[in-house]
Amino acid sequence: MPYFGCHLSPTGGYQAMVRTAGSIDADTFQFFTRNPRGSRAKKPDDQDMALALAQMKAQSFGPLVAHAPYTMNLCTKEPQNRDFAAQVLREDLQLVAMLPGNFYNFHPGSHVGQGLQTGISQIAAALCSGLENDLPVTILLETMAGKGSEIGGSFQELRMILDAVASSRVGVCLDTCHVWDGGYDIRDNLEGVLEEFDRVIGLDRLKALHINDSKNPLGARKDRHACLGEGFIGLDALSRIVSHPALAHLPMVLETPNELPGYAKEIALLRSFIKS
Ligand code: FE
Ligand code: FE
Ligand code: ZN
Fold it and tell me: What's the average model confidence in pLDDT over 5-22?
């Protein structure tokens, strides 16, 4: 049985997120490590984090997904902006290390015309420096839609990053909207896509999923999330994905355009797919 949850606001702290998750029958959740604009994180409240961890354990939650700010681009062109992004990564890893065993997910980055190879070596350099401290955190590369110069729009590109970093503490988070927009037909060829993922990346590296429908057709490279059943992927395909035996143990997080009541409905829907 997968763990189901959604993206939550971290404003009230960690125990508040655990409570909110519980109130919508979620047993995992995702949150931004800081304001999406990438401003300084406020000082972590270690007592709140420790109590939240204990509550998660008592309620048999699965691993959480801490999400980096969208603006963190480890392969941006200006060296000082790149240093700032690497600094954000290091600080965020320290924060997530206070929630041992959970995941830190980020968008690999956009090479902004520097080229794929340069972008990948810059991402790898930042990751290697972040991994030096040996923190109890697994870093996840998110599969991307491949918009503009975004890296991670293909499984091969993620494989190149994994090879360049060569650490078992780096995994992958598969976003259903992103892979669909990137041209992977998870609607009509789920088995083929999972086989390709396994061949190129390895299913053992897959640690979490983002469950979203897409506002655009296959291969559109747009990245616009839709509510479940209101996009081009559709409920039948999403039901096959969340009930697939190869994915059964993973946290699955909604990032659909919803408020809490909408998330509650979608989590109930996802759970109904598993029971049937
Ligand atoms: Fe993301
Ligand atoms: Fe996502
Ligand atoms: Zn997205």
Answer: 97
| CB hemisphere CA count around 50 (13 angstroms) | 3
User: Which residues have C-beta within 8 Å of that of residue 169, sequence separation ≥ 6?
Assistant: 131, 137, 138, 139
Each residue's pLDDT tens digit, 248-273: 999 999 999 999 999 999 999 999 99
Per-residue burial over 170-186, b = 16 or more CB atoms within 10 Å of its CB, e = otherwise: bbbbbbbbbbbbbebeb
Q: What is the pTM of this model?
A: 0.97
Structure tokens at 138: 């697994």
Q: Give the residue numbers annotated as catalytic, written as ranges.
A: 37, 67, 70, 107, 142, 175, 178, 210, 223, 225, 255
Q: What are 84-97's pLDDT values in tens digits?
A: 999 999 999 999 99
**Distance (Å, rounded) from C-alpha 209 to C-alpha 113?**
29
Question: Residue 98 Cα, ligand 2 centroid: separation in angstroms?
Answer: 23
